[in-house]
């Protein structure tokens, strides 16, 4: 309820203020668990990604945020759940897997951290690990422009255009029944990163974008 | 029962390393480069193979391959 209200409000603000545009949103399955795997240009990516899609987005957030009552209350209402970064934290893995198995959407950043220069960084294997654990598809995603909205140390977002593009979902059924192996995780991660790179290198013109919107208006989820 | 062979098989498979790299004194983190995600996967694999439960906190007891075998023996 709180999520839906906030989502509607922020969506209107985002459309006007940062001219938030989405491409390929019909590639997000309408039902069932799915991971959105974007590049990571800014700390605000999860927030803006959550506004951009119609399905509710669940997201991992630093455990520290949950230590203070007010921020904890707010981020919990925004479907965030805690993760201990860089530590052995099976609880957050179980939480993510459970959320996905219950048919929800999670964003996971293969790069792990925000890119300082906008370039793709070497990926970590966590996204692939959780995708295989939960047996869900991964939608490669590219976020453009969020790095210009919130500069480091800035408190008020700047009115800069943001475009989010979703690729075709990737299915990894062939690996589901195989025993865990780093080799498999690397193969899955490679596939995700290749698709993110392809999207990053694609150059969608405004005209193509609007034609796309008209064609897929009904599919927006 | 955990043997060196079946413990090594799991480590080789999970970490994608060569058999020759895995000796009793081999350190999972320092010699084989296992990170936190690898340890999560290893714990899961050991739990499934030997039908045991390993609390996260016990990971500090699993420094070397020999430690792993000793630990699993104590849990069975």
Summary of the model, kept short:
The complex is a heterodimer of chains A (221) and B (76). By secondary structure, chain A is of the alpha/beta class.
List keywords for this structure.
heterodimer; A: 221 residues; alpha/beta; Glycerol-3-phosphate (1)-acyltransferase; seven-stranded mixed sheet; 8 helices; 40% helix; B: 76 residues; mainly alpha; Non-ribosomal Peptide Synthetase Peptidyl Carrier Protein, Chain A; 3 helices; 0% strand
Could you please describe the fold and organization of this structure?
The complex is a heterodimer of chains A (221) and B (76). Chain A has 221 residues and is of the alpha/beta class. Chain A is built from eight helices and seven strands. In chain A, helix 1 packs across helix 2 (45-52). Chain B has one domain (4-75): Non-ribosomal Peptide Synthetase Peptidyl Carrier Protein, Chain A, CATH 1.10.1200. Chain B has helices spanning 4-15, 36-50, 65-75. Chain A binds chain B through residues 86-91, 93, 124-126, 129, 179-183, 186, and chain B through 13-16, 36-41, 43-45, 56, 59.
Question: Distance between termini of chain A?
Answer: 18 Å
Shape of chain B: globular
Q: Which percent range describes the beta-strand content of chain B?
A: under 5%
Distinct helical segment count of chain A: 8
Kindly provide the name of the CATH class of chain A.
Answer: Alpha Beta
- Physical arrangement of strands within the biggest beta sheet of chain A: 1-7-6-2-5-3-4
Q: What is the subunit arrangement here?
A: heterodimer
Task: Label the CATH architecture of chain B.
Answer: Orthogonal Bundle
Please give the domain count of chain A: 1
- The rounded distance between the terminal residues' Cα atoms of chain B is 8 Å
User: Sheet bearing the most strands of chain A, described?
Assistant: 7 strands, mixed
Lay out the secondary structure.
The complex is a heterodimer of chains A (221) and B (76).
Chain A: H1 2-17, E1 21-23, E2 34-38, H2 45-52, E3 57-62, H3 69-77, E4 80-83, H4 90-101, E5 105-107, H5 126-134, E6 138-144, H6 146-149, E7 163-166, H7 182-201, H8 206-216
Parallel strand pairs in A: 1-7, 2-5, 2-6, 3-4, 3-5
Antiparallel strand pairs in A: 6-7
Chain B: H1 4-15, H2 36-50, H3 65-75
Helix pairs in contact in B: 1-2
